[in-house]
Specification:
The protein is mainly alpha-helical and 125 residues long. The protein has 7 helices and no strands. It has helices at residues 2-10, 18-37, 39-49, 65-86, 92-97, 101-112, 120-124. The relative contact order is 0.13.
Length: 125
């Protein structure tokens, strides 16, 4: 699927953060699902724009709105399924972000530096 390949190539940048990858994939899937939900409007708009001349010698039986709708839904489903297959491990990226150098350093400092005060009896000894 070229749409998924384009997304995959864009996410291969070296400086891409894991949270950005997950957000981009979720937005991509949401956009494809939105298009899928608007298929009927898209088909009606395409019919009003494009008029195909009828050939008297050959009658096409598969040129109905229902066939166009089924084909369009199949394409949208295929794109979403391909994206899900290719990016099935996207949820692990959030866990991976915990181990990035900047995040890890901030986490270690916040864990080792207590935000609470020591009890007085511990300080006196």
């Amino acid at each position: 699927m070229p749409h998924v390949d384009i997304l995959f190539n864009q996410l291969q940048k070296r400086k891409t953060q894991p949270a950005q990858v997950k957000t981009a994939i979720d937005n991509f899937e949401k956009c494809i699902v939105d298009v899928r939900n608007k298929i009927d409007d898209i088909i009606n708009e395409a019919k009003s724009i494009c008029t195909e001349p009828q050939d008297n010698k050959r009658i096409r039986r598969n040129n109905s709105s229902h066939d166009h709708r089924v084909a369009a839904l199949a394409v949208c489903n295929n794109i979403v399924n391909t994206a899900n297959d290719r990016f099935q491990f996207k949820d692990h990226l959030v866990a991976a972000s915990l181990f990035s150098p900047n995040t890890l350093e901030n986490t270690v400092v916040s864990v080792l530096t207590p935000s609470w005060k020591l009890p007085a009896w511990l300080i006196q000894n």
